[in-house]
Amino acid sequence: MKNLINSLWAQYLKIHKGEIEEFIRHPHEVQWKQLKKILKRAESTEWGQRYSFKDVDEAKDWKSTLPIFEYDDIKADIHRMMKGERDILWPGRVKYFAKSSGTTSDKSKYIPVTNENHKECHTKGGWRLVSRLYDNLVNPRIVVGKSILLAGSLRDDIPEFPGSIVGDVSAVIFSRLNPIALNFITPGLEINLLENFEEKLDKIASICSKEDITMVAGTPTWSMVLFKKILELTGKDNMHDVWPNMQVFVHGAVSFVPYRKPFEQFFPSPDMRYMETYNASEGYFAVQYDFDHDDMLLLLDNGVFYEFIPMSEWEEENPKTHLLSEVEIGKNYAMVITTNSGLYRYKIGDTICFTSTEPYKIKITGRIKQFINVFGEEVMVSNTDQALADTCATFKAMVKEYTVAPIFLQNESKGGHEWVIEFEKSPSDPIAFAKALDQNLQRVNSDYEAKRYKNLALDNLKLNVAPEGTFMEWMKFRNKIGAQQKVPRLSNTRQYIDEILNMMNSKS
User: Whole-prediction pTM value?
Assistant: First the structure.
């Protein structure tokens, strides 16, 4: 019976394969159709009438129809929607909202998840992922066993937003999955949507240690916590001893580069595969196309219209955006999206670069607010991830978490970068490790290299080795425990790193 289900599943996925091939062949036409569809659906809303959506005749006109928005610009209207007002950003009443990390002025931000966005973007993106998995796996048998999807939690009892359902986007999507799909996922809704994440992990570990798991999807950090719990519970040496049919780990939200070595210890089989996705609160944007390349195929028929701001212009008051047909390979862009969730020319906060334009493939390079450019060094998360991975390879070390912040100029002392790293496997010589890490960062970032030349502008980086459990404790302190919560990698301020260092010093 399972083999029959697997065969039928593979046949259904051919539909998605055909749709992927269609937008690869006609990317610009498909994108324009997406924009027209969004604007047509929303033309009778407050925003549709305010900005005359019905008068937009071609993609280039859209860029002059309304300005670029950030969350603070639209949060008042979103709060009105959460209070039950209709036809503001999107037609009708929107009930579901994805809770995401906050901006400088808000602890959290709330992104509408409309029925159209749920079905045509998030759900379709999930099917696109599975389609690519079945095309890439030698013997795909994902549905023969069960999958673990580490989700967040939901709330429907927020007094100021009666009738609205709020939670991590993973929980919003999971709670609305087709009942048929739920047969292939473990554990069920009751456990997966528990608010207490530590309790949830304990229960998932207990249940899933006895299941035939073929796929796990989640952020690497919390997945590693789950795997450790299961190994402690079972007494097994690695996760393949627990789940012999495990085929793939699907990850997103953070770069997988620092986590690859620890995962290879959890799953030592050479047949184990890793698949990256770009699935945010605002939409499901990209999936890794094949296992041989770590870039991702940009999804173009998913209810999202894309624009791109060159990073050299993103701080401008009225930055010029590039359409898909205008982007260049290798340049960093800030993403701007118009979606069927009621976001229009919205600056999402992620930075990407294109690795290909035939088809359009991307890599995530960081967050707009997560970089260090205090001294003109323009260090991105992709730089620190790569430098760290290369250094770990040399020293046979493994990293669990890290964060970096500037050391500001004081009196006559030079500036620099300060790192806090919690190792899964520590280097034998941390001083030599820090020196090599500095050299590798110079190698991957020429601006940093120039500032480090003969120590003229920047001193050697400073490395602090954090005791085991430091970042977990800090995340608890910030109330950031959960499936989608991530450690900030880079910051132009010292807020995060000083909190961590103070926590470490208080225990020394």
Answer: 0.80
